[in-house]
Amino acid sequence: MRIKPAFLVKTGLLVVVINATNHGALSRVHFLLVDKRLITLVIFGAIWILSLAAILAAAFHPSPGVRLFWAVPLSIAGTAAFAYYAVQQSEFFIFDVLNFWSARHDVNRALDFYSGAIAPSLTVLCASFVAFAMPTGLSTEVRRPMRFALSMAPVLPIGIVILVVLYRDGKGSDAMPKQFAPLSLSALAAYKIDTGRFPDRHQVQFEPGAPLVRALVLMVDESVRADHVSLEPGNPYTPEWASASGPWIDFGPAVSGSNCSNNSNALLRFMASPRNLTTSITTNPTVWQYAKAAGFRTVYIDAQAGFISAYGKLQNYMTPSETNSIDRLYKLDTSVPTYQLDDELIRITLSELGRGDRVFIYANKNGAHFPYVNDAPGNQKPPVSIDGNYVGNDPATLATYARAVRWSTDRTMAQLTREANWDGMTMIYTSDHGQNFRPGHLTHCSSASNVDAQEGIVPLLVATGDQRLRQRFADVSRRFPGRASHFAIAPTLLELMGYTPSDIAATYDESLLRDLDTKPRFVSDDLFGVFSSQASWHDVDPFVQRPRMETAGQHSVQAQVNY
């Protein structure tokens, strides 16, 4: 066997590519040794040895066709892992793949925001493809049966990783070889998405009484942090809203249902209960069903629909069958500039409220969706200077974010407050999730142990023209500061729609109208029980000043909030 220079070049490229795309493998080995998980270490090592052998079999196969065949998926897999690490400083798991799929309509906006990772990722992709596809530099002959076996070698580690993840209920892919793990996770996610079946939703079983309101609005903003919304006069973030704060009660920093847009909105629309999250989110009647049973006309306004190109411009797990319970559906399209989407949403909201009938409105604002620079006109200056609260973050990003909140939230919510007829109307305002500005991390939608508390800390305010309701909301906000969460919204809506407190208490534990005794927390990863009936919960105290590392099992996350 003669070794040619091409062999050395190819081998060197493979070493560089494997090293660049497999962050954390040695750290995983060290962890398993320190934790004395020797059996797991042996299995982990065996999978790595098998995977390296499969990589060599694909890269040094004598057939150029086989090398080209495997060069594409193995290079894409390694590059995907590299790109995710460049953004998040961690690897992705099966739940990230599921989240990516459900939020695929935002791919262009994400590429724009994380554009800094594109060039190095393309470099890795090209280097990997060349490493696998180039000539082997070997002159060894391989017999036909062995050639076929070598050509199929990469299938084995792909299948093994799938089995490990299935056995571990969606986990277990930590530090697995990135030439194979992303392919395994993608294949498994595709199978789960294609075969996933959920039971039919229950019909409304409660008998509604007289509603407490004529008009009810749930306004869900996008990516707005709690510390960027304030009703304090002259504050630098939302001063215009503060000047029109008359009907509003601020529940302080609250906790979202999840750290991901699709999950939080699904939890709200599907009236999920923390008591039995997986069951309730898949079987409870939707908020539309409850509203219609209580005699409300139902309206949905989506200011983000223009960025969706599939499934009838539906997002956040909304299905055509769900829309059957919606009387009027507004899906704003690309004819409206991004920075005017929330202006149009407010115009529609005021128009629907102006009809004077009994109506329930659910509105998804565009808010401060990344890339933040598109959410306000270019001539708008940042409303605040960047101070020591954000040391280590990119000042330009923070400035454009503050500008987006000032334009899309402060200005529009102030207009809505001034122009709405509050007689018989109540509105709940919140955001789907917060934002994490730490460098080298996702702004939100992180998975597993990478979740940062700021991803789940959001504003929560209620406005009402009914003085008795106002007194009740104000009393709860005063008695339970910082204890509100998205999970208190569903029972609040039900009581405002006229359902009896005793019926509500059979399913829910807290309410913005009664008490907030439950410690606030949000959920991530497997909400729908795709792999396990146990979702990942994260306890949050929004008022704690210093972050603390999460513990195993149930995560305890504390956050810095600059109020």
* Main sheet specs: 7 strands, mixed
Q: Helix- and strand-based class?
A: alpha/beta
Helix content: 40-55%
**Principal-axes shape call:** elongated
CATH architecture of the largest domain: 3-Layer(aba) Sandwich
Give the oligomeric state of the chains in this entry, treating copies of one chain as homo and distinct chains as hetero. Answer: single chain
Low-confidence stretches: 386-392, 545-563
Domain count: 2
Provide the CATH top-level class of the largest domain.
Alpha Beta
What is the alpha-carbon Rg in Å?
A: 26 Å
Beta-strand level of the residues, as a percent range?
Answer: 5-15%
Write a concise keyword list for the protein shown above:
563 residues; seven-stranded mixed sheet; disordered C terminus; Alkaline Phosphatase, subunit A; alpha/beta; 20 helices; 2 domains
Secondary-structure map:
Elements: H1 5-21, H2 25-34, H3 38-59, H4 64-88, H5 94-102, H6 107-113, H7 118-133, H8 144-151, H9 155-167, H10 181-195, E1 215-221, H11 239-243, E2 248-255, H12 261-269, H13 277-283, H14 287-293, E3 297-302, H15 320-323, E4 328-331, H16 341-353, E5 359-364, H17 395-419, E6 425-431, E7 457-464, H18 467-479, H19 489-497, H20 501-505, E8 521-524, E9 536-541, E10 555-558
Parallel strand pairs: 1-5, 1-6, 3-4, 3-5, 9-10
Antiparallel strand pairs: 2-7, 6-7, 8-9
Helix pairs in contact: 1-4, 1-7, 3-9, 4-7, 5-10, 9-10, 16-17
